[in-house]
Amino acid sequence: MSEIRVLIVDDDPLVRSALSHFVSRGADVTVIGQAESGREALEFLEHDRPDVVMMDVQMPEMNGIEATAAIAERWPEVRVLAVTTLDGSDTVLPMLSAGASGYLLKDSSAESILEGVREVHSGASSLSPRIASLLVKHVRSTEPAAGAGEALEPLTDRESEVLERLAQGMSNAEIAQSLIVSEGTVKAHLGRIMSKWQVRDRVQILVTAAHAGLVDFR
């Protein structure tokens, strides 16, 4: 089992301590540093490279959305997992659009937060059920960007079916059961969509499709 190196970014020292305690329960996770602002997080990444950054949203100097966008641009191999108390659509979609691979609330269980770190590190995504629901509701009310869908490489019928079920909040296993295929086949389809659209995880597939008006949430 490979080691997952984690940087925790939050302006509250008690929260940083609690999150460090939660994720350090995993034998495969090592907290290599803490930062109290987005700017301090970027300074840390200049000299050391974590695998996963656990990022708060609302912080002084540079907020989590700005820091996440900078990390995604400069160090695309580093995964960002938002861990915050903010669950409004004015923070969820901007944070995910900036490049976060997951979005969990601080009231999530310690097990959920640890699993979230593992999921984003593995290239999957991690959204708490309430956040996934908010994302869907926000996208429902957002007009697709004009011509955005035309700029994307088209999907096959089966890839479109996988995307449709992803938009319904299904896990890989649930998508596999729905389409009567193996979970490995679903992962392969998702991998091809990521490659076509040049995105890196399930969350970014959904955000990209939403902006392009390619998913219809019912």
Task: Summarize this structure briefly.
By secondary structure, this protein is of the alpha/beta class. It contains 10 helices and 6 strands; from the N terminus they run βαβαβαβαβαβααααα. The protein folds into 2 domains: 4-138, Response regulator (Rossmann fold, 3-Layer(aba) Sandwich); 146-212, Arc Repressor Mutant, subunit A (Orthogonal Bundle).
CATH A-level architecture of the largest domain = 3-Layer(aba) Sandwich
Judged by helices, strands and strand pairing, the structural class is alpha/beta
Strand content: 5-15%
Mean pLDDT: 86
Distance between the ends:
40 Å
Task: Determine the number of helices (DSSP H or I, runs of at least 4 residues).
Answer: 10
Helix content, binned percent: 40-55%
Measured on Cα atoms, how large is the radius of gyration?
Answer: 17 Å
Strand order in space, largest sheet: 2-1-3-4-5-6
| Structural domain count | 2
Task: Report low-confidence residues grouped into runs of 5 or more.
Answer: none
CATH topology of the largest domain: Rossmann fold
Number of strands: 6
Order of helices and strands: EHEHEHEHEHEHHHHH
Strand count, sense and barrel status of the largest sheet are:
6 strands, parallel
CATH first level of the largest domain: Alpha Beta
Report the principal-axis shape.
globular
CATH superfamily of the largest domain: Response regulator
Structure report:
This protein is an alpha/beta fold and 218 residues long. The chain folds into 2 domains: 4-138, Rossmann fold, CATH 3.40.50.2300; 146-212, Arc Repressor Mutant, subunit A. It has 10 helices and 6 strands; from the N terminus they run βαβαβαβαβαβααααα. The protein has helices at residues 13-23, 38-47, 64-74, 89-98, 110-121, 129-140, 157-167, 172-179, 183-197, 202-212, and strands at 4-9, 29-35, 52-55, 79-84, 102-105, 126-127. The chain starts with a strand and ends in a 6-residue tail after the last helix.
